[in-house]
Amino acid sequence: MAQTTVNVRMDEELKKQAEALFADFGMNMTTAFTIFAKAVVRERKIPFEITASDPFYSESNMANLKKSITQLNEGKGLVKDILEVDNE
């Protein structure tokens, strides 16, 4: 299949951020746009969302949360109330 070149204009900072994110996904800008174009043509709509994983749900953070829950359940934690203060 013959290849062609597509030029895309975008904000320089957006390009840098997109390239960094695509690198996290293990791909470059060309691969990401090709995947997008193929999916759009196949589905005849914007068919998917690629998102970076939320660090809150990382294995290490989930382990810390489980440890904290265990400590609280065993009475080893410190529970504090949140007090709202009216600044008026």
From TrEMBL:
The signal sequence is none
Q: Which UniProt keywords apply?
A: Toxin-antitoxin system
What Pfam families does this protein map onto?
A: RelB
Q: Output one GO BP term.
A: regulation of DNA-templated transcription
| Family membership | Belongs to the RelB/DinJ antitoxin family.
Q: Which NCBIfam families match?
A: RelB_DinJ (TIGR02384)
Name of the protein in its database record: Type II toxin-antitoxin system RelB/DinJ family antitoxin
Annotated organism of origin: Clostridium chromiireducens
Question: Which classification does the entry list for the species?
Answer: Bacteria, Bacillati, Bacillota, Clostridia, Eubacteriales
